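Consider one such protein record:
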Amino acid sequence: MHPRVSVSAISSYDWSLAEDLEFYAEAGITNVGVSMAKLDRFGWDEGIARVRDAGIRVANVIGIGPFHLDRPAQWDGQRARLVRALDGAHALGAPCLVVTTGPAGRLTWEEAADALEEAIAPVVTLARERGVALAVEHTNSLRADVGFVHTLADVVDLARRMGTGVCMEINACWAERGLAETIARGVDTFRLVQVSDYAVGTLSTPARLVPGDGDVPIERILGQVLDAGYAGPFDLELIGPRIEEEGYGAAIRRSVDWLGDALTRLGA
């Protein structure tokens, strides 16, 4: 397995943490992204112990859109869950915790950005103390339920303002105007780059593909990210009907091979 490739637990969405760990051992998967939701279902403390005992490198922990930004009365509870995820990432030695912004509700984009900055500020401070980067992910515009930031350019600007990092989701930004320039300008904020493919004409989400099976110019974008100086991991996040049809194990294996080969060709 290429040392800069990791496999997100989202890629085996319906498997339990125990099934994930069994597969990783069988398939030689050594770098992973761990799901907070799967840890919760397994049992938080026992799950963290099982992951640590597995001897795998945790490249990231996947959280959730933490805040309903137009409901500040709920922020304390939502902030507490985010702190718990941060503690989990710290316990697992994960360098970053990936979160989306949460929905804006009835707020304008600008109001939602102000609200997020206020809501997340204490967690940003705590993350620095823990040595874990918060990586804010931009989302497909159809997923307004989990985030209000839908371009890489916007999430880079917002992350600089809040003092967080960025999770670049190739599937959500590959067709953006001036993408290479945005990457070059924002690469210092990147803490994780998520990789999957997409078939033009797909009208639903999530409907991702194994890299190389769709229409995204992934290798070109990987080259732009590497040329800009990014030195972190590339996380496979596969989800959707085509992944289910092929089967998690087969889709993950093919993805790991494709991405590793691409990074090798690019000199990573």
